[in-house]
Amino acid sequence: MTDFFQNGSITTLHNLSNRSLEEMERELLEFSRQRPMSLLLPSLYSELEGEALPRILDHLAQVPYLSEIVIGLDRADESQYRDALAQFTRLPQHVRVLWNDGPRLRELDAKLQERGLAPVEPGKGRNVWYCLGYILASGKGEAVALHDCDIVTYDRMLLARLFYPVANPNFSYEFCKGYYSRVASNKINGRVCRLLVTPLIRTLMKVYGHTDYLTYMDSFRYALAGEFSFRRDVINDLHIPSDWGLEIGVLSEMYRNYSTNHLCQVDIAHAYDHKHQAVSFSDDHTGLSKMSIDIAKSLFRKLATQGTVFSSEIFRSIKATYFRIALDFVETYRNDAIMNGLDFDIHREEQTVELFARNLMKAGQAFLDNPMETPFIPSWSRITSASPGFLQELQAAVEMDFEEYSR
């Protein structure tokens, strides 16, 4: 049971009554007659070998209201793609797997690269972007939800609550962000959100003053949640980063494209746990270290588009202010953990804050050194304008892969 408090500039939809799954799924099935639903699952092949995905598939096999499930598969060779098809196509819904490393999709990507329109680097953002293109091409879903494939605590209620705000035809929400408590194994998780994103947003408010955008970003209870849903018309004009800034980039795009009364967040799980990234104290190109740099650059870029001016001196002030605010948060979370009987390693938490503070300077320097960088993948509206038949080519390539390799 959670509180009913509304904070910030977007609507929060709480879990106040522990409503039954059966009741919600009956309503969603009725909604699906007017607003068919597609589920997008970005996945590495390695996740098919983990403990989470079999549980997720068991639950999805029982979902009655889905019209389509689209899986974006990264880092897979031919035998692994065949294995993925075998695992996913046991689901009763219409299922397609985008083999991003396969020759057909690589050829399409090369066509976009020739015109400077392809995603600039591999990663979750690129994976999601191609899946969104396929969903546009297939036309099977009017409401779309996305979640990761490493959720070890997954159940069907998470998906039902995630879809409900954008599937209900009586609601006006175009986009919904999931949130949940990040407590597992007797400790508080979610380090990047707790120790980087929230302290950095509060820092930017202190340095630049309160703005509508920063208030909006500060309204999300878990800004880095990989679970969100939206209506199909959102896809066309969406610009997203291809790196770890995906979640921040999507929230920023929603702010740019829609009034906040069309956006919401929803409590989707009492317990949530997934695969944890290593902090990677000694390598900026992996783990939470790379994630922190990408996320900081995403926020800096967004503020720059609104006329905010950055300099080396300002980044030094941001780092110092962030460090003090983040250390205060460490104390807050320590007390929260103690009161709830949870484990808390204050040394490790402060080490992580020190790493994030250093990475803010690296992100700031990268931002200053690359003023001409194009940080976003082009929108699908631009792709269809530059190459009118591309979506049909993408759909055809996915279908041919399915026909050839699912035998």
UniProtKB/TrEMBL annotation:
This is Glucosyl-3-phosphoglycerate synthase. It comes from the Bacteria.
